[in-house]
Design goal:
- This protein has six helices and no strands.
- It is mainly alpha-helical and 83 residues long.
- The protein has a single domain, classed as Winged helix-like DNA-binding domain superfamily/Winged helix DNA-binding domain (Arc Repressor Mutant, subunit A), CATH 1.10.10.10.
- The longest helix is centred in the C-terminal third of the chain and has 15 residues.
- It is globular and about 30 Å long.
Length: 83
């Protein structure tokens, strides 16, 4: 699992950004992986979950944000001030 320290070290996100906007923790780490540019396989390995579970969580994240594509998700994350 990625800690808040690691997230801050990436220079993209902070734990405060997420808690203020109530993004569930299991989706926070998925967003971090998407923003890092990791492949689905690499991201799922880093998170210790199967590639299928990772894919489902990406879909859940996109639904939570109200977007249809990963690109739109990145734009929405920027709009919300998460990046």
């Amino acid at each position: 699992m990625i800690s808040a320290h690691t997230v801050r070290g990436m220079g993209h996100l902070s734990s405060h950004d997420f808690t203020a906007r109530s993004l569930p923790e299991h989706l926070q780490v998925v967003l971090v992986q998407l923003l890092s540019g990791a492949t689905d396989q690499a991201a799922s390995n880093r998170l210790g979950i199967s590639a299928r579970t990772y894919s489902r969580r990406v879909s859940e994240l996109l639904d939570h944000m109200g977007v249809q594509s990963r690109f739109q998700g990145g734009v929405e994350a920027k709009r919300r001030g998460w990046v």
